Amino acid sequence: MSAGNNPLKELEKFGQSPWLDFIQRSYTENGSLKKLVDEDGLKGVTSNPAIFEKAMGHGTDYDGQFKQIAQAQITDVSTLYETMAIDDIRAATKVLFPVWEKTKGKDGYVSLEVSPYLANDTQGTIDEARRLWKAVNEKNLMIKIPATPECVPSIQQVISDGINVNVTLLFSLDAYKAVLEAYIQGLEARHKKGEDISHIASVASFFVSRIDTMIDKQIDERVAKGDKENSQLKALRGKVAIANAKMAYQHYLEVMKSDRWKTLAQAGAQPQRLLWASTGVKDKAYPDTLYVDELIGPETVNTIPPATFDAFRDHGKVRASLTENVEEAKKVLADAAKLGINLKQVTDTLLEAGVSSFADAFDALLGSVASKQIALQGEKLDGIKIDLPADMKEKVDAAMEDWRKAGKVRKVWAKDASVWTGDDESKWLGWLDIIDERLENVSELEAFQKDVKAKGFKDILLLGMGGSSLGPEVLAETFGQQAGFPKLHVLDSILPSQVKTFENAVDLGKTLFIVSSKSGGTLEPNVLKAYFYEAAKKVLGDKVGEHFVAVTDPGSHMEEVAKKDKFWKIFHGRKEIGGRYSVLSNFGLVPAVAAGLPVKSLLQTAQRMEKACSAGAPPLYNPGVLLGTVLGVGQTIGRNKVTIIASPAIYDLGAWLEQLLAESTGKEGKALVPIDDETLGDPAVYGKDRVFAYVRLASKPDAAQDKAIEKLIAAGQPVVTISLNDIEHVFQEFFRWEFATAVAGSIMGINAFNQPDVEASKVKTRALTDAYNQTGKLPDEKPFATDGDFSFFTDERNRKELSGNSLAEILKSHFSRVKAGDYVGILAYIERNMPHRKWIQDLRLAVRDSKKVATAAEFGPRFLHSTGQAYKGGSNDGVFLQVTSDNSHADVSIPGEKYTFGVVGAAQARGDFDVLSERGRRVLRVHIQGDLKSGLEKLGNAMKSAVK
Ligand SMILES: O=P(O)(O)OC[C@H]1O[C@](O)(CO)[C@@H](O)[C@@H]1O
Ligand SMILES: O=C[C@H](O)[C@H](O)COP(=O)(O)O
To answer: What predicted TM-score, i.e. pTM, was given to this entire model?
Structure first.
């Protein structure tokens, strides 16, 4: 075709620049784009989220770069998308640059749209526009900003910054007027500052076809219903959009004549040209070049989709159409109004729908990028497989769609408390960015690791409770002792026998003590510190402080103690992270490095999961949301017993998970009740109150677990299977489960970051130890029955429900209260050692198999800082047996205190019991006198008979 009869090239004579409403990597790379510039007089390119979704979300154009980035970097999906989009935009700007030069900056632009998620965020849009402008760093770039009421001020600001802007999603004349005003004010502000305004280019993208699509639909519906104004309505089909656009152009001409504009023009300002967008014909009844043919006029742009571009080249009709029949256009609009077509309503709806459809397209785009990224990371990222019964699946899908539509993942990352209860949640989200922060400062930790090694410690004894001990315990149990480094022991009990066992297990003179407490005020770490400091002093003398480090939040009581006692080091936690979310902060990392673990690579492993759960990762591809919605929805439909099955090599992850789930969600009469370490049974022993979470170490799975899980899936139980390809991936799971817990808490409608009911038993315990300090003994208590070595305690309410006087009878009547959907909690204040763990395990399985209910096997006082919150504050579906004993070892005194470890343990058990009873729980306490071993055996046997 010769240049002379190419309608696209003819447009120039009428003052209109044809741009292309399309971008695609291969199109730029293979020279197709350049061909349009050279042969058709193409003068610009526009993109939008839907265009990028088509380009990047499908096909293979980007696979090479995807692969390269996914393998070389740990990055989030938004960054990945943006890196590729920026490369595309930049490549296109290079092709269009000669046009920019030739037209002296009037044309030759390529547009990149800000995130559609920011359409209602003035400052967010300003920041994003500035960021993208800088990142692309090309003179012929335009940043696209939507014309929402919130973004009009952003446009003004960004223009005054000197950034080129393409205003998008303009539908109404009023919105256009506001945008042109913002442009002028932006220029005026810049001019006033004495800065150059001549290089700023801007277009106002006025959407066309979408208006006809919507109005035509209204017309067709009315006509179909036999509207009496049938023919007048039909006459308006395909007319309103063009008429509306013509009116916008009239306004433009008006403003250009104004003195205000002339002043700016004299200073070199370029007009903000109207750009006709949405010019692909959607109704096949219309000529395919309709929205180009009819809108040709000076100082305008038409961004044309590829098919329309080809059609126009072939048979477009070029004439000065834009200023033709303006009166008729006015009449079209007046007729439409008369006929009850509400243009304002239409344009308002279109703006809203436009924002939301670009957000949907962006979700789809990020979803497909995320799915490719997940696939390309292969075994580096833990997998998740979800098997749900159909009714639950439907609800989980709906919850996931709600999370997508409402942009809740982004809200979590924006630390928006409205995701939960609108309380103080935003103050507790420091765990979201702790991995990045710790990685930035990893050299501090690595230096400490070197020092620990150099000092030649044999053991590390960590003293802490709950969040301060359970993460380190996972590390100790999962990774074992590292060559050349001390062995990590974690003590989270004050029972005298347990304290002694640990004291005997370490060489006090060669032990590094880590005293770990966020608040610094928790009773157990304080008394344990007092005890071991004195004990070590006997061996180390004045140098004792050099064997102690503290991990605590800034300004805590523990910090003061550590300073006074000349601790070797004090590591700080972050106040915006609660104990159970603290494992990836210094609370987990300090013991990790001391024990010789490769902290940098572990943090990077965790970071991979953090990035996979990032703000941009849509729910369906977000590993944390996937798990969290199953858990949260499970609770809302009565499946609140989260049964954690972990491969043997990573079994202890369950102990950490218990605290995370129970303390986060067990409150306000609701709970996810963690059921940890309950050996899998036949499907027949499970009710409808469970969700199973199988955390499977793919490199070392357990065949029996695999088989049992398969059966559960076949039986229709909900099962989430998480695959860790490497033992180090427990660090990924730390983050995934934190995120999932936050999501579940949101679905449950609770504040996932407080623990309101833990304090209650602490208060009771304190009252008891105070009483001891005053009187030298704990207040008297009276059993309601005794049987040999056993005494039984409970409150009046429970007493009334119990019958019998013997061990067998009392247990029988207590457990006869268990019904389907309940769980049984055995709360044993005895040393947590192998024989006792076996004892409790054996017992709980007997209860589970007979009563067909979930069981929790817990040791006091450790569970008080973990599942204790849910037992007291959560749903009233627990039936508890508290087991206490006379201390079989001699009691141990605490330096500086009147009370002993034994007294503290007894006071804690009583405090715990009192709160359970106050909260209306079904609870019985059995106290064993004399020999513990035989007492436990008898109790076990009696209980097995009682539950039969
Ligand atoms: O680290 P701290 O402040 O000593 O607290 C230990 C544990 O106690 C709790 O506050 C519950 O009592 C947990 O949330 C926390 O992990
Ligand atoms: O700037 C371009 C617009 O995003 C595009 O023209 C919208 O076109 P559509 O209405 O065909 O989606």
So the answer is: 0.95
